[in-house]
Amino acid sequence: MRSVYDSTQVRAAEARLKEFTAPGELMQRAAYGLANECLNELHSRRGGVYGARAALLVGPGGNGGDALYSGVWLLRRGIAVHALLVGVKSYPGAREAFVRAGGTVGAISDADAATAVSRADLVIDGIAGLGSSRSVELPDSVAEAIATTDALVCAVDLPSGVNGDTGQAYDGAIHADMTATFGAWKPAQVLAPARRLCGDVRFVDIGLGPHLTDPRIDVLDYADIAAIWPGPSYDSHKYSTGVVGVIAGSAQYPGAAVMCVGGAIRSKPGMVRYVGAPDAIERIVAAWPAAVGATSIDDAGRTNAWVIGPGMGTDDAARSVVRSSLSLDVPVIYDADALTILSGDVDRLRERQAPTVLTPHSGEFARLFGEVGDDPVESVKAATRRTGCVVLLKGPSTIVAAPGGRVLVNETGSSKLATAGTGDVLSGIIGAALAAGLPAQIAAAAGAYVHGALADQHDGPLIAPDLIDELPAFMARLQA
Ligand SMILES: NC(=O)C1=CN([C@@H]2O[C@H](COP(=O)(O)OP(=O)(O)OC[C@H]3O[C@@H](n4cnc5c(N)ncnc54)[C@H](OP(=O)(O)O)[C@@H]3O)[C@@H](O)[C@H]2O)[C@@H](O)CC1
Ligand SMILES: Nc1ncnc2c1ncn2[C@@H]1O[C@H](COP(=O)(O)OP(=O)(O)O)[C@@H](O)[C@H]1O
Ligand SMILES: [K+]
């Protein structure tokens, strides 16, 4: 598990740590760590660092100070370093130290600023970090040189022009190959769209650890999933490993049911029950002979969790199923059409006594709760407060919040998943995790992890059924 802290938490931790350290010490730790990361990467790219050129983009605050002090270390390794000041101010003392060490200084508006960037092997973006909250306005020629350079572009703490706390990217935000983050992971390093602009994030320990508590976000990793994903024990039987009920599909969208049941069944619960019309049951059993059919929830028999919604349509019959399912006393995940049906009735979700998971994409989220906006984590938290449900917002970074709980963000998967039906597989996987007894938020986040990892593991172009085909190999590895 990786913990992520927002700028207020990081600044508070820095303030506490400063009580125990000499003035300027933290910036020196940051600058040394930053220089090391750049030197290592530069070394592996060009086989050595001596004689290389670096350009520093230097903003007026602490971020620019880090860049200038890292320049001192680069100079000591035989790199020619030129600093370009963005604005008139620079961090007190840093510019002087940089010049004393042999660095040269110009302004971002200089006629040769773009040339300095294009000739560099290393560009360090120290315009703004934690204090970045607006667009980056560089001369066009410099912006163009940064965007097109083959040099290593390394962001100091955060790429300039991203909001560190929300993951929002403003106009002109720097696209880095690598980001050296100081003392803590920041939300923008795990949230879209900023996450992509960070490139490879390198953690530079400056000693904040003991002063950081109560992370804003946690990111589950493979070891977490291996530890929590349920597997059978020697005395398991089909009812002890969880029975999933699925209500999905319709004459218009029969495939959604096949994929949802497939996602559930290949995640290895004890049993999957499919509830639908007789012809729909026939189709499902043809695709998945191990699935058990029933024509109503009442006739389905013992079930530990329900997945309701993929491709079920929004006609009166579907509406009536969704409404009556609100009183089910086992966990339910509502997805797709069930979310559309519930969007007229969001506050009724509060009636649910058992755990409930909602899995909207941004369009469904907007229908339920209003537009996601610039701060998706806050929007998802507000949705959990309103409904009392676990809310999983799908997208390039999937966010899972629970009432009163910590926010989980998933990092597996990619835009390969932007293809019809992948969401149906996801809800099936989460259904299996819920039926096995995982707490709702963990089931949702672990399901998202597995789903994304299936896409990552798949070679070549992906369609939704490929995810189901990847499940056995993934589960085998997980349980080995
Ligand atoms: N605190 C500590 O102990 C440690 C902190 N450390 C380092 O300090 C960083 C935080 O420093 P910080 O607070 O000075 O803020 P910082 O990120 O430099 O930005 C604020 C300045 O930038 C300016 N600015 C903003 N956006 C801009 C833009 N697009 N284009 C141009 N300018 C822009 C903004 O100007 P304004 O918007 O107000 O006009 C303001 O002047 C942190 O990320 C880490 O790198 C490390 O050394 C470890 C120890
Ligand atoms: N650009 C992207 N990057 C990563 N994951 C994505 C991206 N686009 C979509 N996904 C994932 O693909 C799935 C799509 O689900 P959904 O929109 O419900 O599709 P459908 O309804 O067709 O099944 C979600 O798990 C989502 O997180
Ligand atoms: K930066």
TrEMBL record:
GO terms of biological process kind: metabolite repair; nicotinamide nucleotide metabolic process
Q: Identify the HAMAP family for this entry.
A: NADHX_dehydratase
Q: Residue ranges of the YjeF C-terminal domain?
A: 221-478
**Gene designation:** nnrD
Record-listed E.C. numbers = 4.2.1.136
The GO terms this record gives for MF are: ADP-dependent NAD(P)H-hydrate dehydratase activity; ATP binding; kinase activity; metal ion binding; NAD(P)HX epimerase activity
Q: Which InterPro entries match?
A: Carbohydrate_kinase_pred_CS, CARKD, Nnr, Ribokinase-like, YjeF_N_dom, YjeF_N_dom_sf
Q: Which cofactor does it need?
A: K(+); Mg(2+)
Reaction equation(s) it catalyzes:
(6R)-NADHX = (6S)-NADHX; (6R)-NADPHX = (6S)-NADPHX; (6S)-NADHX + ADP = AMP + phosphate + NADH + H(+); (6S)-NADPHX + ADP = AMP + phosphate + NADPH + H(+)
The answer, when asked if Cell wall biogenesis/degradation is one of the entry's keywords, is no
**Is Metal-binding one of the keywords?**
yes
Class of the enzyme per the UniProt entry, highest EC level? lyase
Q: Which Pfam families match?
A: Carb_kinase, YjeF_N
Q: What family name appears in the similarity comment? A: In the C-terminal section; belongs to the NnrD/CARKD family.
Q: Which domain of life is it from?
A: Bacteria
Which taxonomic lineage does the organism of this UniProt entry have?
A: Bacteria, Bacillati, Actinomycetota, Actinomycetes, Geodermatophilales
Q: What keyword terms does UniProt attach to this protein? A: ATP-binding, Isomerase, Kinase, Lyase, Metal-binding, Multifunctional enzyme, NAD, NADP, Nucleotide-binding, Potassium, Transferase
Give the record's subunit note: Homotetramer.
* Cofactor stoichiometry and binding remark: Binds 1 potassium ion per subunit.
| Domain annotation YjeF N-terminal: ranges | 10-214
Would you tell me the protein name for this molecule? ADP-dependent (S)-NAD(P)H-hydrate dehydratase
Positions bound to AMP: 394-398, 423
